[in-house]
Amino acid sequence: MDISKHMDFYNPIIDFKDQIHIIGCGAIGSTLAEMLTRMGFQELHLWDFDIVTAHNIANQMFNSKDIGQLKTFCIAYHCKLINPDIKIFKHDKGWDGQPLKGYVFLAVDNIDLRKQIATDNKYNQQIKGMFDFRMRFSDAQHYGANWHDPKAVEAFIGTMQFTHEEAKAETPVSACGTSLNIITTVRIICSYGLCNFLNFVKEGKIKKMVLIDGFKFDILAI
User: Which of 5, 21, 182, 191 has the fewest beta carbons closer than 10 A?
Assistant: First the structure.
């Protein structure tokens, strides 16, 4: 794959040898997979058991021909159209305690599962960094942690001290009960999250939290 557009900034084909796990392949996860593929990363692990439905097309990296198929299968197919040499490992039953290593991107739509993944791997020193994404309609949150820093891990898990039901109550929904979010919010928070990941990989620098509202043009990063 020709990555001459950005290889002077970072060349993962040469400089990156770790695993990348994307847990949850909906709006955030599918977008992260596409962006990482275009950056030239050579291997992705995709975790999701869900299939593509018609309402996924508006804000996820799928098209109408993907409807009814597993999200992991469709993402792998589209990523290979971008880079035929990429290796995609599809975990079609989702994450259920399997070992993780390298870098972990949390993109599941259930805070209880996110908390379980983080707490179950609290002392897993094979993980280098963990990155979490949460989104409503125009606003979104991103959290990052150096997994070799115990205080950072505690702070990361500390952002998850609420239940899935409490999170659902704060999520905007349509009249028919569909969760509302928009593609612009997806792309913005994914872009900031990947910038955070790249800064950490390249320089060891990481932002603990990024808050954005795309339509108010607000951003807070600490």
Answer: 5
Per-residue pLDDT of the chain (222 residues; tens, 9 = 90+): 999 999 999 999 999 999 999 999 999 999 999 999 999 999 999 999 999 999 999 999 999 999 999 999 999 999 999 999 999 999 999 999 999 999 999 999 999 999 999 999 999 999 999 999 999 889 999 999 999 999 999 999 999 997 767 666 566 666 565 667 799 999 999 999 999 999 999 999 999 999 999 999 999 999
How far is the CA of 103 from the CAs of 17, 21, 58, 99, in angstroms? 11, 6, 28, 12
Cβ distance 57 to 78 under 8 Å? no
Q: Does domain 18-221 have CATH number 3.40.50.720?
A: yes
Domain-wise residue ranges, the chain: 18-221
Q: Is 94 left (phi over 0), alpha (psi -120 to 50) or beta?
A: left
